[in-house]
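REVIEWER CHECKLIST
Item 1: Sequence provided? yes
Item 2: Single chain? yes
Item 3: Sequence as submitted:
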Amino acid sequence: MTIFQQRAITAIIFAAVMLTGLFFNESSFNLLFLVISTGCVWEFLDMTLPNEVYKNVRKIIGALASVGLVLLFSNTLTGTFSPLSEQILPANNGSSSLYFILFLSFLLLTVELFLKAALPFNNVALLIFSLIYLSLPFSLLTHFTHLSGSRSFTPNVVAGVLFLTWANDSFAYIIGSKIGKTPFFLRVSPKKTWEGTIGGGVCCMIMAGIIAQFFTELELTDWLIIGGIIAVFGTIGDLVESLLKRSVGVKDSGNFMPGHGGFLDRFDAFIFCIPFVYVYLSFVKDLI
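Item 4: Structure as written out by the authors:
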């Protein structure tokens, strides 16, 4: 099997899993992003933690903490992943998550007393940062599926954000590889060009107009604004992950997708966009 065939088969399977998880039902939606979030945290810790005896223990703790944080902040239960009532979880999920991270920080510092690591505070800082950088954004997605406090589940807004992120990234790569000549951020990503970045952004805005015709939960203006947010912050998110990989000397964050890299490689831009789209939908539009 050639590399191209391997990449094509992997891409088809990936698309099928993503679309099924997104649209089948609310349980599959939550399970999909719980797995992705945990996979991203695992890869981040694998790349950044020093190769010490208890590295795998710390990675397992990080994965479990990621599951707990996503479930807590997204207000969902394991198994059924159905929304919890206010009688079971506090209404202020943001405070609950803050307490969770605070408690975990002190628990990890206590554990480090016995693990005899060379850089214990670095280990704790990396684990806590992985939750803030990766798990918290994914935990916001459930709120995108119940706009204006609706009890009915709709994955269309999340799907739209995901499709726009892929459009921005894909067209930036295609256009940049064809006509790109001017380096965009040479120090971090030598292959990125201004031509590709601008082309990806323009195509992202066009795609936003198309998505608005199908996903009518938001108006055309909203989708265009979200498209602009993704064109900017999706590009930054991709650069941030490139900076991470360059700093630790790896080509891919993982290998769960043969020929395509790891979880973090596939969702770096999406992760970075989520908080900014959330701010727009919550504080500007008051839909969350």
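Item 5: Key structural point noted by reviewer: Residues 66 and 139 are 9 Å apart (CA to CA).
Item 6: Recommendation: ____
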